UniProtKB/TrEMBL annotation:
Origin species: Paractinoplanes abujensis
Protein name: Glycosyltransferase involved in cell wall biosynthesis
Domain Glycosyltransferase subfamily 4-like N-terminal: 24-183
SUPFAM superfamilies assigned to the protein according to its UniProt record, in alphabetical order: UDP-Glycosyltransferase/glycogen phosphorylase
One of the GO biological process terms: carbohydrate derivative biosynthetic process
InterPro entries: Glyco_trans_1 (IPR001296), Glyco_trans_4-like_N (IPR028098), Glycosyltransferase_grp1 (IPR050194)
Record Pfam families: Glyco_transf_4 (PF13439), Glycos_transf_1 (PF00534)
Keywords: Glycosyltransferase, Transferase
Domain Glycosyl transferase family, first and last residues per copy: 191-326
Length: 365
């Protein structure tokens, strides 16, 4: 384990604050990253949008403008309000320039931005940059990532994601996301099904609703509405008819919800880069019925508490969820232990510090 204490600039995405309740898995992962690095003695400066936790210890240049929609009914996770990027990108430039000017006191940049700007600056910061690829190879990121791999290290959240980027000439080491065992505790289970995450079309919660109705079990939904029109058309009509929407929950409440459920439904309708909700559910002992797409199979591994079915197949999902919820997999403690053996935040912290040690090297060891 590395014991070198560093000053690390963590760059978050431009869209949502890094705070609870988390806007999504990416924001939860960055929040955990900052807490974990600080707990291990590192000085961490977070560059994130206004309203984020942890900003009080950083320079003013690291406070990026918040996303404000003139009409919340127009809010989506795939676009920005008019004029927002015209404010946000110069602010991000100022933060990167701060890093360049203070390169003698900042040891490393840990980049999680979904915008190419930090990647294009990697060669002129004078500081090693470790970038995590959280998405498929988005066209706006590919060229910048190709260049940045010569000035730092690139990580991918799954082998599936790494393979997608490799097809575009970008090499990345696999570094899966992790779960804080102290916060995602063992739960007692229950009768209801649960779905949690960002409520957007590609996450497929409407298919979870269909599957739950086929099982005859109540479905409890938790998460932030990332596409208002989608929620109003595909989810709201079913509320109160065996479906409850609990809103976005803070992590302790969310862990309690998931841990008191019979089975979690995970329903991505796109090539999911990772699937953090699977690891989180398993950490509470709750089994998972999920669509087999993208990196989902890697997170599931060989866990007997996970059943994978073809993407979009509500009937197959209902059968898998019904079997798991009926008690064919009862050993919740074993489920949790197996999940933490693979996705423990403490274990990942030591691996990450080793990568930070290697960040200035020419090749992986």
């Amino acid at each position: 384990m590395s014991r070198r204490r560093r000053t690390i600039a963590v760059i978050a995405p431009l869209r949502h604050p890094i705070r609870e309740p988390h806007a999504g898995g990416l924001e939860a992962m960055v929040w955990d990253r900052v807490r974990m690095l600080r707990a291990r003695g590192h000085r961490v400066l977070l560059c994130a949008v206004e309203g984020s936790q942890f900003l009080e210890d950083g320079p003013a240049e690291f406070r990026l403008p918040a996303v404000v929609w003139p009409d919340e009914r127009d809010a989506t996770d795939s676009t920005f309000p008019p004029g927002h990027l015209e404010r946000a990108l110069p602010a991000l430039e100022a933060a990167l320039d701060f890093i360049r000017r203070h390169r003698d006191t900042i040891d490393l940049v840990d980049n999680h931005s979904l915008h190419p700007q930090p990647l294009t600056w990697a060669g002129r910061l004078g500081v090693p940059v470790v970038t995590t690829l959280h998405t498929p190879p988005l066209p706006r990121l590919v060229a910048a990532a190709r260049s940045a791999q010569h000035h730092g290290k690139l990580l991918a959240v799954s082998a599936h994601t790494a393979a997608e980027w490799r097809e575009h000439g970008v090499e990345a080491r696999v570094m899966p996301n992790a779960v804080d065992a102290d916060r995602w505790r063992l739960g007692p289970g229950g009768r209801d099904l649960v779905w949690f995450g960002r409520i957007v079309p590609e996450k497929g919660v409407h298919v979870a609703v269909q599957a739950a109705r086929l099982t005859g079990r109540r479905l409890r939904i938790a998460g932030r509405v990332g596409d208002v029109a989608y929620f109003q058309e595909h989810i709201r009509p079913f509320l109160g008819r065996g479906v409850d929407y609990l809103g976005p929950l803070g992590q302790p409440e969310l862990a309690d919800l998931v841990g008191s459920s019979a089975c979690a439904l995970v329903t991505p309708l796109w090539p999911e880069p990772f699937g953090l909700v699977i690891a989180e559910a398993l950490a509470t002992g709750t089994p998972v019925a999920a669509f087999d797409t993208g990196g989902v199979g890697e997170v599931a591994g060989t866990a007997p508490a996970v059943r994978l079915v073809p993407m979009g197949d509500a009937e197959a999902l209902a059968r898998a969820a019904g079997q798991l919820a009926s008690g064919c997999h009862r050993d919740r403690r074993r489920t949790r232990a197996e999940a933490l053996a693979r996705f423990s935040l403490d274990r990942r912290a030591a691996e990450l510090e080793t990568i930070f040690d290697q960040a200035g090297a020419d090749a992986w060891v």
